Amino acid sequence: MRKALFGVFLVFVMLFAVAASGCIGGGETTTTTETQVKTETKVETQTQVQEKVFIRFAGWSAGETEMKNYQRMISQFESKYPNIGVKYEVITQMFHENILASFGAGVAPDVFYVDSSWSPMFIDKGALYPVSDLADKAFIDQFYPFLLEPFKKGDKLYGLPKDWSMLALFYNKKLFEQAGLTKPPETWEELEQYAKIIAEKTGKPGLAIYLGGFNRYVPVAVSNGASKPWFEKPEDASWFDNPTVKETLTWYINLYRVGKVEMEKEGKTPYVVQPGDVGAGWLGDAFGQQEVAMVISGNWMIPFLSDQFPDFKYGEDWDIAPLPAGKEGRATMAYTVILGINAKTEHPQETWKFVEYLLGPEGQKELVVKAGQTLPSIKGFENDPDMWPQHKKTLSFMPDYKEVVVFIWGPKSGPLEGKFSDAMAAAMRGEMTPEEAIDIMKQIVQEELSG
Predict the structure, then answer these.
(1) Max CA distance (Å), the chain
(2) Which of 60, 160, 212, 388 is a Cys-bridge partner for 372, taking CB atoms 3.0 to 4.6 Å apart?
């Protein structure tokens, strides 16, 4: 009897040991483990399978350099987490509209870019998983607080910024020298004067801007004393009635309307152009090809110039300056994008691991600081020895600005930005007056926010 009881006890101990061994550890690779416990009467088999999870990551591209950097980081992540695979998808046009449409079709990616200007729409549509439900507070506290504001609603945070950029003035030192200019312009009026002088002395346009580009105009208004634009209800269209807004918006539209359209009508060299006027696809190309002397752009242009125009040397051939000042000082725009997690993802924990890897100190050190893509969104890298000098210089301008405006105008910033820019572009081309464009922009606010 005593032997029989001992045998039963021994089997119980062995079964408990097998069960416990299945709960400890948890490797990252796909494994199948079989353990057999034998007695005189039966064989018991336990099987554990850890399947590989695949997630989809969608973004737009700032060029081939950025795409290569992401592929490298994804490979490193998959090596560290072999049970998670990542498919990288690049959407080249109408990014946010396509992502929203993919939700309706039930094929939205697990993680995707969301620009600050579009974040309210994604949050209101329930498209974003609250990252505050996944991330530790200590992890969130690493980020610059002002970059988090566009992605909050109530007590929830719906995304963490992957990086950020600010507008600065890029100028060609050699074209400046040919035109007899020894320093960058200090004011917006001086910017236009410099553009004229450079065109007259060198035969090349002094400044390239985008047609439209409401967000590029905002620093002009704010630096001259206008409040930051915010459109939440139809009555907010009154922002455009501010005399400072009317004056500065008319000036900005006339940069191209007069500097290109009217100058060519008079048979003169234009002093302001858009990139396509000089055979360029965007401002980076126009500046890198040295077809224009000045552009206003963000940090994303820095790695592009380094990669695509290596003989056009920073410090020797070109340099960076803060945006010109208005009557009330200087202002600039800040741009940031989160890696938003799909609220309906089937793999929230695995997706968070990927986001955490890219956005944490290790990921930002590699992808942002060393690669020089933009500016890191977490604190502590300001004096990092691997920070590119061009980025360090733009960061050094921060004390010069009375305001850094994050790109968001209210709950419908994305659609408003596009429609504002269309009206501005039409006026720049001379298809309507600046006054007519301003009236249309007021109507856009009222129509978009009615009801």
Answers:
(1) 115
(2) 388
Q: How many domains does the chain have?
A: 2
Check: CB of residue 448 under 8 Å from CB of residue 268: no
- Would you call 14 exposed, middle or buried from its count of C-beta atoms within 10 A (0-12, 13-18, 19+)? middle
Closest CA to 158 of 207, 125, 201: 125
Nearest to 197 by CA among 183, 215, 218: 183
311: exposed, middle or buried (Cβ count in 10 Å: 0-12, 13-18, 19+): exposed
Contact 296, 167 (CB under 8 A): yes
What are the tens digits of pLDDT across the range 56-94?
Answer: 999 987 667 778 888 999 999 999 999 999 999 999 889
Please give the model's pTM, rounded to 2 decimal places: 0.84
- Residues 191 and 327 placed together within one structural domain of the fold: yes
d(CA 6, CA 171): 87
Whether 233 maps to a domain, the answer reads yes
274 & 350 share domain: no
Buried b (16+ CB within 10 A) or exposed e, 275-306: bebbebebbbbbbbebbbbbbbbbbbbbbbbb
Rounded-to-integer distance, Cα 421 and Cα 217, Å? 10
